[in-house]
């Protein structure tokens, strides 16, 4: 009897001891967007499977960037997992700031990650962050207005067609703008949009020797086209419009077309928030006639482990859980296929149920049409489509986009802005030792 | 002799005061109003003032998603702690500057104030490294010290201004009666400067409550105050204005109520010595 009890106690004690030895609390820094918030809601599933608890630190994108950069460079060790983007991952991976994700389990099926995403989140062939969701950009348009205008949106339109359609759909009397596009200063806002537009006109940020290219005719042509299109058929004050402002306009039925992140598709087709939910069509981002590169970008929000963490094993388990096929199925079972995180896994697009989601095909086509290693018509020394994956880019591009936004606001001419952009970019690149 | 104020003048002054008051209050009013709308109503153009279906859905979502009480408690500790610590340091400092000034007192006061001109981000890395070295990251005590140091110039300046209004003869009389320095400051100076000290405490509490650079950059999960709570609802990719407004309303409510109840002391303290 005594022996039995003693054995029972010993078993219970060893179970508790084992449990406490492996159960950890990991801290995750993340951004505030729909998919990430949804993931927080399923944390209990992860805890039930692994025993690990999770503390979330949710921050606005720019605050998060500053916060995690400070933490990683001062070795603060505040976070065990960081949500970072395609811009930071290769740079931080190269600096040795991230734990390589080269030993993920066989069930995880790392080869299922979309090639474009895997390439953009790797450095020298090593994956440093696992994509939670990925996006490109595409045309979202009002099918009812298109029909009224007597036009058919091709799957792969040109900028010239976009202008023609904008002219046909523009209806100031009914408060409908032909087209809504980003103009807000900031490298990730209007800066990203004008960069991909310029790519589709044959422009590039730098030549092979890191010389700025704003003095080349392609940049001028792209800016002239954008400014004329927006002045004629865009909303008033477009110089300060970013993603959210345009989303708001489109959801209220005030835009004929909107070219922006593919992730917006789930917002504009959600009848709860959008007044035009049942009349939205999708097409590939446009290109200038005769230019092979289209104006679609590539981005992913991904989960990475900072090199200083003491809980790398638990962090890896979380990443495997959050970016797995099982997680996608968990969300689909509870909230429907339209709400699963898109753009990360090939198998998602092979799922018959997901193929019925109206924006699924165009999202995949847009992602597949983007190649960060070959983003422009002419050769470039950098990786990245709407950004240049070097640490100096965020600062330079923010200043350049401020000059461009001043053009959109009518405060300076295109020539003046390009001249300033050329000078400030070359100065910064010289100071950083590239030239 | 008091000047006679005509009724017409009174009406104009009252109307102007109301207009300025409403203008200042409007953003807060709009935030509170938006917190009761759906996300679609929040971005409606033209804006909806009253003709919408009021909902508490945003508060329910915010409550479910975030541990509001933890953020609130951290705010109370950090704002309260830094203010009290600041007062403890600043009262003796302001006493010496007001009653036993040296040739350099004015310069020191100006130098202290000049530290406020340094952009916070300029010292982000040194302070972060100090915090890492002393294991102060994501701790309330670390933030109490940093916010105290940041607000100290303002606390000293305010107290110095109030103390200057107190006749030095009274302190001298206390000294003649045998009061020690501690007794002089505690039992003679402090009671006379209560309105000034109270308004300094209130103002600094509000400043520390609203501080949103250090509180975001030096905290993670444990010590994050209400500023981090609000920041977690802001997003450049997605329209969450109604939820953000609900979070903001919950964050400003305590300080708004505190300000409401203590407005008499605040006004009295801020105008102390302004009219002779």
> In CATH terms, what is the architecture of the largest domain in chain A?
3-Layer(aba) Sandwich
How many helices of chain B does DSSP assign? 14
Number of helices of chain A: 19
Any guess at the CATH architecture of the domain at 68-232 in chain B?
Orthogonal Bundle
Radius of gyration of chain A (CA) equals: 24 Å
What name goes with the CATH superfamily of the domain at 68-232 in chain B? Answer: MetI-like
Q: What overall geometry of chain A do the principal axes of the alpha carbons give?
A: globular
Helix fraction of chain B by DSSP (H/I, runs of at least 4): over 70%
Rounded to the nearest angstrom, the distance between the terminal CA atoms of chain A is 83 Å
Binned strand content of chain A: 5-15%
Structural class of chain A: alpha/beta
Instruction: Show the largest interface.
Output: A-B, 44 and 31 residues
Main sheet attributes: strand count, strand direction, barrel closure of chain B: none
Indicate the structural class of chain B.
mainly alpha
CATH topology of the domain at 68-232 in chain B: MetI-like fold
> How many runs of DSSP E, i.e. beta strands of chain B?
0
Portion in beta strands of chain B: under 5%
Task: Output mean pLDDT of chain B.
Answer: 90
Helix and strand string of chain B, N-terminal first?
Answer: HHHHHHHHHHHHHH
Mean pLDDT of chain A: 92
């Amino acid at each position: 009897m005594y022996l039995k009890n003693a054995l029972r106690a010993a078993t219970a004690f060893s179970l508790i001891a084992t449990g406490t030895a492996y159960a950890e609390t990991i801290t995750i820094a993340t951004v505030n967007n729909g998919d990430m918030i949804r993931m927080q809601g399923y944390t209990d599933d992860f805890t039930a499977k692994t025993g690990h608890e999770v503390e979330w630190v949710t921050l606005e994108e720019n605050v998060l960037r500053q916060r995690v950069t400070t933490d990683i460079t001062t070795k603060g060790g505040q976070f065990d997992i960081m949500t970072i983007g395609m811009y930071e991952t290769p740079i931080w991976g190269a600096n040795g700031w991230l734990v390589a994700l080269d030993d993920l389990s066989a069930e995880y099926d790392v080869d299922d990650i979309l090639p474009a995403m895997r390439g953009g989140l790797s450095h020298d062939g090593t994956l440093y962050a696992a994509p939670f969701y990925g996006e490109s950009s595409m045309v979202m348009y009002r099918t009812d207005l298109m029909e009224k205008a007597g036009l058919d949106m091709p799957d792969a339109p040109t900028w010239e067609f976009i202008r023609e359609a904008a002219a046909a759909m523009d209806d100031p009397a009914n408060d409908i703008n032909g087209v809504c596009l980003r103009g807000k200063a900031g490298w990730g806002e209007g800066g990203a949009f004008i960069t991909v537009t310029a790519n589709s006109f044959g422009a590039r940020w730098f030549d092979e020797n890191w010389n700025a290219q704003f003095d080349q005719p392609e940049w001028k042509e792209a800016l002239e086209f954008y400014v004329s299109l927006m002045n004629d058929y865009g909303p008033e004050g477009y110089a300060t419009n970013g993603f959210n402002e345009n989303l708001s306009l489109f959801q209220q039925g005030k835009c004929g077309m909107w070219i922006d992140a593919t992730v917006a598709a789930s917002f504009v087709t959600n009848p709860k928030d959008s007044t035009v939910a049942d009349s939205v069509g999708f097409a590939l981002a446009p290109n200038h006639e005769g230019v092979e590169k289209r104006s679609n970008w590539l981005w992913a929000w991904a989960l990475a482990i900072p090199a200083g963490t003491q809980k790398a094993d638990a962090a890896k388990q979380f990443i495997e859980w959050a970016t797995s096929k099982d997680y996608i199925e968990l969300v689909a079972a509870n909230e429907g296929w339209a709400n699963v995180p898109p753009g990360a896994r090939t198998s998602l697009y092979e799922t018959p149920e997901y193929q019925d989601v109206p924006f699924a095909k165009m999202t995949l086509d847009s992602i597949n049409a983007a190649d960060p290693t070959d983003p422009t018509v002419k050769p470039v020394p950098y990786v990245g489509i709407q950004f240049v994956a070097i640490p100096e880019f965020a600062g330079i591009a923010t200043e350049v986009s401020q000059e461009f936004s001043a053009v959109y606001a009518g405060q300076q001419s295109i020539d003046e802005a390009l001249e300033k952009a050329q000078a400030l970019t070359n100065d910064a690149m010289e100071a950083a030792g590239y030239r | 002799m008091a000047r006679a104020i005509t009724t017409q003048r009174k009406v104009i002054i009252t109307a102007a005061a109301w207009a300025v008051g409403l203008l200042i209050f409007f953003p807060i009013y709009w935030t509170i109003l938006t917190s009761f709308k759906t996300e679609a109503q929040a971005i409606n153009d033209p804006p909806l003032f009253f003709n919408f279906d009021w909902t508490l859905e945003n508060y329910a979502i915010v409550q479910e998603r975030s541990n509001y009480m933890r953020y609130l408690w951290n705010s109370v500790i950090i704002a309260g702690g830094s203010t009290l610590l600041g007062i403890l340091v600043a009262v003796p400092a302001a006493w010496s500057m007001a009653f036993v000034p040296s040739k350099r007192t004015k310069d020191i006061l100006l130098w202290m104030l000049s530290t406020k001109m340094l952009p916070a981000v300029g010292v982000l890395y040194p302070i972060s490294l100090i915090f890492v070295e002393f294991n102060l990251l994501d701790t309330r005590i670390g933030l109490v010290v940093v916010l105290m140091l940041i607000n100290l110039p303002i606390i000293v300046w305010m107290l110095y201004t109030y103390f200057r209004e107190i006749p030095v003869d009274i302190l001298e009389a206390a000294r003649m009666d045998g009061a020690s320095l501690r007794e002089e400051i505690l039992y003679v100076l402090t009671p006379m400067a209560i309105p000034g000290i109270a308004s300094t405490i209130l103002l600094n509490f509000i400043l520390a409550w609203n501080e949103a650079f250090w509180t975001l950059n030096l905290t993670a999960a444990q010590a994050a105050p209400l500023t981090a709570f609000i920041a977690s609802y802001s997003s450049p990719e997605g329209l969450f204005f109604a939820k953000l407004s609900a979070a903001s309303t919950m964050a400003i409510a305590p300080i708004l109520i505190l300000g409401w109840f203590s407005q008499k002391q605040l006004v009295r303290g801020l105008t102390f010595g302004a009219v002779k």
